[in-house]
Amino acid sequence: MNAKDKAKELFDKFSVFSYSVNGFKYTTEMEHHASKQCAILCTEELKNSDWFIPTLKDALKWREHCNDIKRELNKL
Predict the structure, then answer these.
(1) Residue 59 near residue 53 (C-beta atoms within 8 A)
(2) What is the C-alpha to C-alpha distance for residues 42 and 54, in angstroms, rounded to an integer?
(3) 39-53 tens-digit pLDDT
(4) Among 2, 5, 31, 47, whose CB has the most other CB atoms within 10 angstroms?
């Protein structure tokens, strides 16, 4: 998935969420800025967890991809 699509997907996941209280379902929409900050923090955590990547070359590509996602998130 390219960085722009991934940024939009992450932003969308943080912008609306549902929860239940005493059997009642609620849907909440977060502010634009808060959703963007959550997605950026998530991307930063993913970037720093490159332990699962077998080679340094792949790890560098992974980090650059995460940086591209963060740039796209900042454009939203």
Answers:
(1) yes
(2) 22
(3) 999 999 988 887 777
(4) 47
Structure token pair of residue 59: 């790890």
**Which letter does DSSP use for residue 52 in this model?**
G
Q: Is 37 exposed, middle or buried (0-12, 13-18, 19+ CB in 10 A)?
A: middle
73, 8 Cβ separation under 8 angstroms = no
Fill in the DSSP letter of residue 54: S
Instruction: State the 10-residue block means of pLDDT for the chain, 76 residues long.
Output: 92 81 79 90 88 81 93 94
Q: Which two tokens stand for residue 69?
A: 């996602």
Closest by Cα among 13, 2, 22 to 40: 13
